[in-house]
Amino acid sequence: MYLCRRIPKHLQSSLKNVKHNKSTIAPEQVQSESSVVVSSRLIEELQGVVGKSNISTAEAVREQHGHDESYHPTSLPDCVIFAENTEQVSHIAKLCNNSRTPLIPFGTGTGLEGGINAIKGGVCLNLSKMDKILSVNQEDFDATVEAGVSRQTLNTYLRDTGLLFPIDPGADASLCGMCATSASGTNAVRYGTMRENVLNLEVVLPDGRIFDTAGTGRRTKKTSAGYNLTNLFVGSEGTLGIITKATLRLYGIPECTTSAVCSFPSVQNAVDTTVNILQCGIQMARIEFLDEVAIDAFNKYSKYDMNVAPSLFMEFAGSDGTLDKQVEVVSEIAQMNGGSDFKWAQEAEERNRLWKARHDIVYACMALQPGSKPYSTDVCVPISNLPDVIIKSKQLIDEAGVIGPMVGHVGDGNFHVFFPVDRSNPEQVQKIKDVAKQMALIAQELDGTCTGEHGIGLGKRELLEREIGEEGISVMKQVKSAFDPNNIMNPGKVFC
Fold first, then answer.
1. CATH architecture of the domain with range 255-456
2. Which reaction does it catalyse (predicted)?
3. Mean pLDDT, residues 103-127 taken together
4. Buried-state track 436-467, b at ≥16 Cβ within 10 A, e below 16
């Protein structure tokens, strides 16, 4: 089935749906490392490409595009431009490249490591108007979308086809933005991350060239033809080029789904249960860990009454027969590890309410300290090392005397801590930064990574160098130089 239709306005992931709390950003926090003022001549040339209505130098618009959902201080671009098609993106890139002007791609602004902050000024390129679903191939289980299509918009569109796109980072992020950050989420234990679910990308390079990473129109499930350029751009955080289209894997909606929450006497018991479940080869749809601090925030914010204890949120999907067997085995494993107080959600409405509350956990954590912003960090380790890193991280949080609710996609060894932080309190900020760094160092010592999902952005550049070494950074810089010799693409991110 081939479709080429503009998404209805009520489904668009529009700019006005991006939520930012401007009041929490103090003037002294709006800064750039080295601001580049976009010349009036370049503004005129850009207007010639997109029209006057699609470019703005208004401070309010620039502020909205100068930060994501992280704690990193706002850094304003010099102007914001709204592209409507790939050809316009190509012209914009070429003009910025010729004038050596920084160019920062912008999706929905839901990142957590300052990946869109314009720390060197320049042009912010908003892709939200490129909002077409170009094709859905039901028989082949794939779809091609433009850069401005969000994951919820695609799944709403797919509702009557029996298919879904399962990668769910929580926020309603743009799909090409999810490609750029190699997003993941609660379903990763079953479906993997963006890296496993992107078949092809259309990319605009800094010099304006347009190419498809797997070849024009290619959408095979596997290939051994040449270098894997697709996965080079997945996770590149806008530093190599601008992703304007993505061809993605789709999956059939499971016949039956049920969810459960179970509490445990300790973190060790909860994580041991996760490891036991996976070692038994049980294919879970989702398995999420929340510690007692996160459960307390969860109850208060989303009006639940769960036992305030380390807990697992689990989802099972499959046919009637396989589902019953999965539930039986997992229940036995949980009880062996001291699990109790099972709460089941089988109706779609209650399941959706449960998982919406789980996705709102960042805002629930912020409500523990009114007026705070999230300082969110994540690490990922081999599953066998997960209990060790979680317990050590909780000790660090307790010793520092800060609030640190912990949430984990423990099925793939990944967990997050959402610290509420008062950015006007430098002592608290420094304590939280120290804890986050120590967590990452512990993860790296246990054969893990300093980030499983959030990316490097601004906050983890030093940790990346420690993780892959000087030679690894040198190779990355060579790749960057090959694609972006003038260093205009999102400069200052991933590495300095």
1. 3-Layer(aba) Sandwich (3.40)
2. (R)-lactate + 2 Fe(III)-[cytochrome c] = 2 Fe(II)-[cytochrome c] + pyruvate + 2 H(+)
3. 95
4. bbbbbebbbebebbbbbbbbbbbbbbebbbeb
